[in-house]
Inverse folding.
């Protein structure tokens, strides 16, 4: 079960990393991909430790089972800390990203900023800061929600500032709640491992 949790952490971390990487350049104030990277790292560690725990259970090794329990404790604590940090800082991150987008939108004469705005608008299906009206009558192709060539097309009606806020809120909740959910499963695994380690130790004492 812990192995499956490890795989789930890796997959969710990788998916969120790909999505968040598209907007990471908006603001340098926060490293928004850090939680996703940590999920991938923790998922890999959980998978390896779960394999170690299985070996300990099969071999009925008190040492291996106890070591497995110790590392599970560390992982549970680390994942809960990540979830708490995400919940605490998500508001500040949203404000920083929103301000960052407003800045690069206002400085879109710079080609790098213009390309980043286009990427965000296409990826998040939004247009302008508050709406497509921020572009006037000459909005770019990345604002088009249907077929056609800008400006002769139907633009996205939602602005990117509010869309970024929704996206970050959703991504943050996924990362935080998945971390908590996996931590709960690991806690159950920890209890089972401790019981098994105690049973192995008692068995060794009886036969020694």
């Amino acid at each position: 079960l812990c192995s499956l949790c490890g795989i789930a952490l890796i997959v969710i971390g990788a998916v969120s990393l790909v999505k968040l990487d598209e907007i990471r350049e908006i603001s340098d104030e926060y490293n928004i991909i850090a939680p996703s990277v940590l999920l991938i790292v923790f998922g890999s560690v959980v998978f390896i430790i779960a394999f170690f725990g299985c070996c300990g259970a099969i071999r009925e090794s008190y040492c291996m089972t106890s070591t497995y329990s110790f590392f599970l404790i560390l992982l549970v604590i680390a994942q809960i800390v990540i979830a708490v940090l995400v919940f605490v800082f998500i508001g500040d991150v949203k404000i920083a990203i929103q301000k960052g987008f407003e800045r690069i939108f206002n400085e879109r004469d710079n080609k790098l900023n213009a390309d980043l705005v286009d990427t965000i608008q296409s990826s998040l299906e939004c247009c302008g800061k508050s709406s497509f009206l921020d572009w006037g009558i000459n909005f770019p192709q990345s604002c088009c929600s249907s077929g056609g060539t800008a400006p002769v097309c139907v633009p996205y009606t939602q602005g990117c500032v509010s869309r970024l806020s929704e996206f970050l809120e959703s991504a943050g909740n996924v990362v935080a709640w998945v971390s908590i959910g996996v931590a709960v499963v690991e806690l159950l695994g920890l209890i089972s491992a401790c019981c098994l380690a105690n049973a192995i130790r008692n068995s060794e004492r009886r036969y020694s």
